[in-house]
Design a protein that fits this description.
8 helices; alpha/beta; six-stranded mixed sheet; single chain
Amino acid sequence: MIWNVDLHKLLRHRDSRFRLDVAFASDAAHLALFGASGAGKTQTLKMIAGISTPDTGRIAIAGRVVFDRTAGIDRTAGIDLSPQQRRLGYVFQDYALFPHLTVRQNIAFARRSGWLNPRRSGDDAAVSRWINAFGLQPLADHYPHQISGGQRQRTALARALVNEPAALLLDEPFAALDRHLRKKLRQELRDLQADIAVPTMLITHDEDDVEVLASETLFMQDGRVVPLRQAADEDAHRPG
């Protein structure tokens, strides 16, 4: 089983509360979590990545348990691997590139164990491989503000893949792009999926993303994974 997720968390913000109860198991190589904004998709992805911590639950990726904390046990007990230990590549919606680092340095940063900035030039074969794979050679010494949105996305993907992750997590990767560029990069990502044996989890509210990139789709609504029919029925009965 590639994806085995059962996580629970109560999110609080001022006077509002949102309960996340997400459970699913899938062997799909390319899984999509599809749903409207506010359904809990990004929070789910962050908990899988280890950026945020569930209150209770269990998360296993490709047969490897990265989080396991049953209800009622001490928070220091159980399994809770750090994001680095989980070996999951993560592409943020805004790409989260470091503005003071070049394209090469941004990609190489994922290879560092400390916080020192990578050198502007280097001979890291893995970094060079992904620079070449995404056609970033002419831009390797450029800074994020000097390159296009599509080039920033390629840089973020290269950074996520440079350490050969067990899986790739994609948080609305086309949301910041215009319609024409979304279509082009969607196909590029589809080609990448075919070329590398890395499972992907995509979160999106765009049906075109699902159609092109997902081998299985799960529907999220109000912090839960629900059947498509239930999601449609509940939407139909919401006040307009």
